[in-house]
Amino acid sequence: MRIEIIPCLKDNYSYLIIDESNNTACVIDPSEAEPVINFIEKENITLKYILNTHHHFDHIGGNIDLKNRYNSIVVGYKDDAHRIPEIEVLVEDGQIWKADNFEAKIIHVPGHTTGHISFHFFNDKLIFTGDTLFSLGCGKIFEGTYQEMFNSLDKIKSLPEDTKIYCGHEYTLQNSNFCIKHEPKNLNLQNKILRINEKLKNNLPTIPSSLKDEIECNIFLRAKNVESFSKLRDLKDNF
Ligand code: ZN
Ligand code: FE
Fold first, then answer.
1. What is the pTM of this model?
2. pLDDT, tens digit, for every residue of 113-167?
3. How far is CA 33 from CA 7, 66, 183, in A?
4. Considering 56, 108, 116, 120, which one is annotated as catalytic?
5. How far apart are the CA of 52 and the centre of ligand 2, in A?
6. Active-site residue, 162 included
7. Which ligand is in closest contact with the Cα of 111?
8. Domain 2-237 -> CATH class
9. Over the stretch 2-36, which tens digit does the pLDDT of each residue have?
10. With contact defined as beta carbons under 8 Å apart, do 2 and 18 qualify?
11. Which ligand approaches the C-alpha of residue 170 most closely?
12. Helix (H) / strand (E) containing 56
């Protein structure tokens, strides 16, 4: 499988997972249709599936146009069927979603929204975390509780350390400023920031990150308990 990063809107990332054996693909969280269409038509790819991590407009905005154009199948969380446009396949926590050569475990990660899920492509050692885990940050808690978000991050944290993290937004630089403020002596973080700046300077995405990097550097994953996590989340909201 090959992953292509498709920048959308202001700072969103949609992703294509391309099965190179037959040039078919899934798209994760198409914020808008046009950049996705441009890429797949240039490369003659058949878009078979649309996978949504959650219902926010900047993650589902392209669903209708892409479905109309390619008749792709929309996959999303069962309890969000009423708010994910064109949803056809309903998935739940712990389920293995398998279609053609694509195979991912569904991990329910409530907090940002009640119906947020992550797609863990375990064979390829990568996970699409939407707006739950960002590189050096985590999503705002809109619908869930601090405890739910803390537990959700914990689920992701328990995956193999060499798992690649593909998240929904390019927020890494801003997040790194917050992390370094709280852990100024963290050498891994200092190092990660150098790598981040190098990428941004060359106009490249800072994504994917790795779970190892996030465990070493992301202060939200490093919070020992839900109390300290909540405190950090509140501070970040006003940062
Ligand atoms: Zn969101
Ligand atoms: Fe978002």
1. 0.98
2. 999 999 999 999 999 999 999 999 999 999 999 999 999 999 999 999 999 999 9
3. 11, 6, 39
4. 56
5. 11
6. no
7. 1
8. alpha beta
9. 999 999 999 999 999 999 999 999 999 999 999 99
10. yes
11. 2
12. none
